[in-house]
Every structure is written in structure tokens, then in C-alpha cells.
Design brief:
By secondary structure, the chain is α/β, with parallel strands linked by helices. 43% of the residues lie in helices and 22% in strands.
Length: 294
């Protein structure tokens, strides 16, 4: 028994006429008659009584009709669920992110836009270090990631730049550099630096290492989080290189200054799996790549 048999049966039962039913089903009348006979052979008895003018349901046909309707409705319901999932209208998206995605406002803008467009999709947000995000994506613990470029990505991961900002210097308000009108990379090479602890990385320091043609400045302090870095800077331990988006964070005794070398930029990447098939995740990546706010 196939769904088309049930569809033919229900249409014939509702019209009571082979010709009308065949027209509605877009098939020829002999083909409809053959399919109804095949269904009757399948169930083991007649489902219709046939006269010269119309057909009527037998007792067995009357029993089958509500069951056939329910089966067809359930099949249509199942098809709709799958189609909505493939279109990205339902499902789950697990979003991993590093701190800059929040500080810049980019993550929240994308979340708000996605929830407005696909309110039935479940969203989960997971904060991780940049190094951990690529691994979590490869291991399918998350579905997409917002992160600066940190190390080499696996061949299974796709990276798209969705934003960039000039690098700034965070320094204490009483730092000798705070009064400088223009801060150069040479000046920065002479003062202590604060960077994220191991596992967090500091791409900015890696970018300027070549420009200094020397080892990283000493002493080199480490902090466990963005707020930890800013707290150490404001306390006078040294300076930190941070994207311009971090200037939204106001900390007592902390100021931000631009760097004279405007080529020093911080990027925000959207990472996703190349073999992704989930409709909701694909919908997220399309929105994030087109949802330019910066």
C-alpha cells in the first residue's frame, strides 16, 4: 500500500465519480481504476460499490477512509517539518564566540537579526578561547564560530572575514605614553606588554613581532580574560594591543590611543564546516556573511 493509493482512494471517495477523481488527480480514468483495484487486492476486498452513475464506499471503505486521511495528513506534516528544517526555519544552531564578537556588537546584531527572521530555531551561545573554537567546530561541538585568526585551520573549516578594526593601544592614564600625540610601534617595543594567557593567544603581538625585528617586549605579562587584561593595564603593569571595538569598554584609569601604523588591523572571522548540511546553520552563515554592520 503506497501513499498514492491512499490519495487516489480518498479523492474517489470524496467525488464519488471515477471521471471527476481522475481529472483532479491529473491521471487517465483507466489508470485510476487499475490503482483502486490494486488497493482492493491489497486489503483483501472491495472498497467501493460501482453503479453506472457513481461509486459508493463499502463498509470496509468507510473504515479505511478516516485512516487514509490521517495517514496522508501525517505524511504531509512530516514533509513540511523536513522542508522547514532544510530551509533553516527550525532546528538548532550552536554559536561559539570569542570576546571581540561581543565587545564589537557584531554577535548580538547577528543573533537579533536571526531570531527576528527565524524565531523557531533554537540558539545556544558558547564563549571559548580563539584556539578552542576551531577544535570545537571540527569536533562538531559547535556549528559556527566568531573569532580572530588564531593559528592554522583544518581543511574541513571555512573562514570568512566579516569585520575588521584598526588596532589601538590600551594604557594607564598616567603612563608616559598617554600624553603622546602619536604612538609608534617603536615606542611600544620599549614598554611591558600584557597579553592573553596561553590558549587565548594575541594575534596583534604576532603581527608586530616582524615589524620590531626583535623578540617580544619584556617583561611580558599574561591575563586570563579580556577584563583581566584591561584591569592590569589600568593598574599600571603595562600596555595592551586591542581592536578599536574594545574602546566601548570604559575602565577607571584606562585610556585608549591610536597607533600611527594604521595597517595594523584586527579581523573577526566567521568559521563554519565545509560539509555543513543543516538548514538552520546554513541560514545562519548566509545571514552573518551578508549582515554587515561595520
Amino acid at each position: 500500500m503506497e501513499l498514492r493509493h491512499l490519495r487516489y482512494f480518498v479523492t474517489l471517495a470524496e467525488t464519488g465519480h471515477f471521471g471527476q477523481a481522475a481529472t483532479l488527480l491529473h491521471i487517465v480514468q483507466p489508470a485510476l481504476s487499475m490503482q483502486i483495484r490494486a488497493l482492493e487486492e491489497e486489503v483483501g476486498g472491495p472498497l467501493f460499490t460501482r453503479t453506472s452513475r457513481k461509486v459508493e464506499l463499502t463498509e470496509a471503505g468507510q473504515l479505511l477512509l478516516p485512516e487514509a486521511r490521517r495517514t496522508l495528513e501525517q505524511a504531509e506534516h512530516g514533509k513540511n517539518i523536513v522542508q522547514r528544517a532544510l530551509r533553516g526555519e527550525t532546528g538548532l544552531v550552536r554559536v561559539g564566540f570569542a570576546g571581540n564578537a561581543v565587545v564589537s556588537g557584531r554577535l548580538m546584531n547577528d543573533v537579533r537579526a536571526f531570531r527576528h527572521r527565524w524565531p523557531e530555531v533554537e540558539l545556544q551561545l558558547h564563549e571559548m578561547s580563539p584556539l578552542a573554537l576551531g577544535e570545537a567546530l571540527s569536533q562538531r561541538a559547535i556549528d559556527v564560530a566568531y573569532t580572530p585568526l588564531m593559528g592554522k585551520l583544518g581543511e574541513d573549516i571555512k573562514a570568512v572575514k566579516i569585520a575588521e578594526w584598526p588596532m589601538m593601544v590600551a594604557l594607564a592614564e598616567d603612563s608616559p605614553l598617554a600624553g603622546e600625540k602619536q604612538i609608534t610601534l617603536e615606542m611600544l617595543a620599549q614598554v611591558p606588554h600584557i597579553q592573553f594567557a596561553a590558549g587565548e593567544g594575541d594575534e596583534a603581538l604576532e603581527q608586530v613581532r616582524e615589524k620590531w625585528r626583535a623578540e617580544l617586549p619584556q617583561p611580558l605579562y599574561q591575563a586570563q580574560s579580556t577584563l583581566g587584561v584591561l584591569a592590569m593595564v589600568a593598574s599600571g603593569f603595562g600596555i595592551a594591543l586591542l581592536p578599536h571595538s574594545f574602546t566601548h569598554i570604559a575602565i577607571p584609569h584606562l585610556v585608549y590611543q591610536p597607533i600611527s601604523d594604521r595597517r595594523l588591523m584586527a579581523e573577526l572571522l566567521l568559521l563554519s564546516r565545509r560539509d555543513e548540511t543543516q538548514g538552520a546553520v546554513l541560514a545562519w552563515t548566509r545571514l552573518a556573511q551578508n549582515n554587515n554592520h561595520d
